[in-house]
Amino acid sequence: MTVKEAILMIGSELKPQYPDQEIESICDIIFGHLMNFKKFDKYLQPDATIPDHIKTQIYNIIQQLKQNKPIQYILGIADFYELTFEVNSSVLIPRPETEELVYMILNDHRNATPRIIDIGTGSGCIAIALSKFWPNSTVCAVDISEAALDIARKNSERNKANVEFQKIDILSVNIPEFELFDIVVSNPPYITTAQKKVIDANVLDYEPHLALFVPEDDPLIFYKAIARFSQKMLKKTGTLYFEINEDLPEETASAIETFGFSTELKKDIHDKYRLLKAKPYDHG
Questions:
Q1: Average per-residue pLDDT for the chain
Q2: Does residue 226 surpass a pLDDT of 90?
Q3: Is residue 134 classed as helix, strand or coil in its secondary structure?
Q4: Which residues, other chains included, contact 44 with Cβ-Cβ below 8 Å and sequence gap of 6+?
Q5: Which of 17, 199, 216, 242 has its CA 20 to 30 A from that of 11?
């Protein structure tokens, strides 16, 4: 089987379930992982022969994709901000919107050496990316899930980052004191029960519900808890950053403002309000 034939076969097998753009992305990931191809190598080397053992792996991947298992969980890795992360069902798969959050932070604080805390770190992708691009910064990452923290620690070692990890329940009233931070960042759970009905099966069936869902009667519970934490632990000149629910941008901003912050909503590349940054009122 050639690369071209494999691409046609993957497309034919997956077309009933996956849109063309996602199939294209899946092909990039498969050939990148199994044959070390760069993004366009599959078009530059269409007649390259695929070894039998790789062909077997491709067939196996296709069968799991048909069960809606995300390609990142099948391979056990995901790319994020030019880095590679180990992932499993204990952590969310890093997404492009979260890359935009990291980009916004780095762009806002050029030539900085900040103290940062990432709350609900999951795979560690935000904390590790910031640590890699700011090697002289101090980065702390916390999560309630020990399984997630195990993955995050492995990812920190894998990417040679310098991040301190700690198990913390941000909803608890007994949060340990830290030295003040310049940046508090979080991509917390924010999907409501109503939204659960329209979520893709590959997310609903495989990604950790602990990191996804919030009570219908209190969908901003984590944002309020993190804002409350930031009242005490964020410097007066510091900044708070969130990834947010696209259906609740104004509600999220209003909730954060009640804790003494001015807020600014930001759109992502799909023109949806998915990012929010906040500063203590007395420092604009």
A1: 91
A2: yes
A3: coil
A4: none
A5: 199
